């Protein structure tokens, strides 16, 4: 925990610079925006017609999870069509930097792929006058394991093998453990180039939670936003690791499905089910049916099951939360915060997730999110 918080403080200066230098997300999108997010113009226009802007105006600063960036791009595009008087600046600086910026009062809300811990909730009371921060689940998506192995189009791996690859115990693509899981593949004699996130990331925490839960004998490290294993190579952000996989022969890394594009192949994960499971939004939703709300009061932090046994249930799944004060929000940003969060939690906002490469939050949970957003003050 001390290491995690120390790293977050080191990330503060980066987060502050990124927030202050934010560019508004507009219809032009950005280099990280998925084709699906920008391609859904009809859906965006239809969704925009139902958005309630209320008294929202001015600029809304937010930062954090890069996992949800493609979803935020689609949401902002629709929202700005309906509410041109609001400029939303979302910076995908990573979950750790986003939480740090929020706890320092720099942003109206943060995006994080893991819920706040007890210390962070306590710290939030300094920013949320008369209240505290709460976790609002808004985005569901599979964490895909992208690979670049010449001559191999389909690859199945289990938790134990993934753990050994990312811990530097399996170092070549023709290793017996990989060959056993892929008897029909022509595995080359090629060094494995394993990439992890260099920044604090909820994606890292969720990926290592899966390794710890599904392969405890092979993954000895505690799940953290900061990468704990030794060795390997690193890159910043989801787009960074995706780019490394795309351009590096022998590479493998973890990333949100929406970043596994432009020819990046993804691993089918071997579970207790009969067949290995592909990383798809539909398969992620199947595993999320076993999630439980473990937060107290208005906090809607979830506990995920990383070892599902159902057929077609993809085990490496994350939920991205929007973190906001339940009480004590700044008066000048509260109307825009409530309006935007109300939209993305709405049926129309959630419907955009599938087009952007994600999955909507289950009805029983998103209903509670809408109730909490309506009561923000």
Description:
By secondary structure, the protein is of the alpha/beta class. It folds into two domains: 2-139 and 323-374, Periplasmic binding protein-like II (D-Maltodextrin-Binding Protein, domain 2, 3-Layer(aba) Sandwich); 143-287, D-Maltodextrin-Binding Protein, domain 2. Helix 1 (2-20) crosses helix 5 (95-103). The radius of gyration is 20 Å and the shape is elongated. Strands 1, 2, 3, 4, 6, 7, 8, 9 and 13 form a nine-stranded mixed beta sheet that branches. Strands 5-10 form a two-stranded parallel sheet. A two-stranded antiparallel sheet has the order 11-12. The protein has helices spanning 2-20, 35-39, 41-48, 69-82, 95-103, 118-124, 159-166, 176-181, 202-214, 237-247, 281-288, 334-345, 347-355, 363-374, and strands at 58-64, 86-91, 109-112, 133-147, 156-158, 193-197, 233-235, 251-256, 265-266, 268-270, 292-293, 302-303, 317-325. Strand 1 (58-64), helix 4 and strand 2 (86-91) form a beta-alpha-beta unit. It has 14 helices and 13 strands.
Q: Just give the CATH class of the largest domain.
A: Alpha Beta
Backbone structural class: alpha/beta
Average residue-wise pLDDT: 87
Low-confidence runs of at least 5 consecutive residues: 1-44
Instruction: Tell me the number of helical segments per DSSP (H or I, 4 or more residues long).
Output: 14
CATH topology of the largest domain: D-Maltodextrin-Binding Protein, domain 2
- Overall number of domains: 2
Largest sheet: 9 strands, mixed
Strand content: 15-25%
Order of helices and strands: HHHEHEHEHEEHHEHEHEEEHEEEHHH
Q: Based on CA inertia axes, which overall geometry fits?
A: elongated
Cα(first) to Cα(last) distance is 31 Å
Overall CATH architecture of the largest domain? 3-Layer(aba) Sandwich
